User: Fold Putative hydrolase from Arthrobacter globiformis.
Amino acid sequence: MTQLFDSPSANVPSPNLQSPAPAAESRLWIRNPLAAFTANGLDASGGLVVSGGKIVEVLGAGQAPSAPCGQTFDAGSHVVLPGLINTHHHFYQTLTRAWGPVANAPLFPWLQNLYPVWARLTPRDLELAATVALAELLLSGCTTAADHHYLFPAGMEDAIDVEIGAVRRLGMRATLTRGSMTLGEDDGGLPPQSTVQTPEAVLADSERLIREYHQRGDGAVIQIALAPCSPFSVTKEIMAESAALADRHDVRLHTHLAETLDEEQFCVETFGLRTVDYLDSVGWLTDRTWLGHGIHFSDAEIARLGAAGTAVAHCPTSNMRLASGTARVLELEEAGVPVGLGVDGSASNDASNMILEARQALYLQRLRYGAHVPVERALGWATRGSAAVLGRPDLGQLAPGMQADLALFRLDELRFSGSHDPLAALLLCAADRADRVMVGGEWRVVDGQIPGLDVAGLVAEHSAAARRLVNG
Ligand SMILES: [Zn+2]
Assistant:
């Protein structure tokens, strides 16, 4: 196996460790940024002080740190954001990007053509695919990623373990969701029989993953959630049993819902229920749940989701590529639904780029609601909103006590030349790459690169794996 990193594992910060009061040398002042978006109205013109993996001070204009800082980073050329948080992805799909046979297809035929290809996935394929997806996300300013992995053909039983290895090597945070498919073609579902598992296998592995990996509380690096794939690929029984298991272990629930009108029609024909009634009928209409897409809801359904506190991962690029529809994001938020952003899997948004996804969200929602939708609102979805979607009150804002997860962008490329407002320029001029990214107080991107990652070697091996996969 080719070694993609200089060292076998990155120096990953441990969560939940109480440390004594840090000395000056451990305090870092990220000083006087060109601009900062805090996601909470705080003024960070003077910068931030980071210590012990957390933000300990947010400084207004002209303010200096309250105690000496042994290290200073001059951010005068940088726009500082909370680390971006991706709430919906399928890492393995980086192997089937821009695949000709489905380049111009809507969801159901797109899936039916891809399932047999995906059924050939191997653990090494997934390791390469997850590393590619995570590296892309990290370079775009993302510090926490959620992945929805629901493919467990024979030989792929350790898929989530493989993903966790990739997350740890890159030094990011992640919510890995143990997905499942239990309703195959033989029983009226969409996926081929070789890709579905028994409910017993799904539940046993879900429980194992929670026990082995799920971390709780501030600073958690790895979290596990339970994620039956979609109404047309799982039984109602596995939905209900997953909800009960999540309740017992206090972990979150995730699934695709209300992505297309085909799906709505499937629910009405198969269950005699619209999507939100279906969700309610299996015990998922709670604040433990976040939904991928959440497009086709009536006014009454939006009100029910808001009252329950059920969250939505808005995936604008995927929704445009597959022509699935436009999520009613402002109305969802106004009803009380937490909304974050997801790039979605790389077979339906072929780029895993979070800062560009914030731009797509801004523009798609402007098409729906008008040009007054502010840039800051889109940045809020990608940060504080996404943190709420994943149930992470310690992430997504620049404030004292929050984790020191940061994305810093420079505006000195050609594409920004002539721009005026730095925050607006990030989205309107299409920033696509962070210059520096910090996770838990550790720099994971420096000068636009991931230290120690052999990108050329990764691309070569991943591309070969992708060709092998589609050629059978
Ligand atoms: Zn998806």
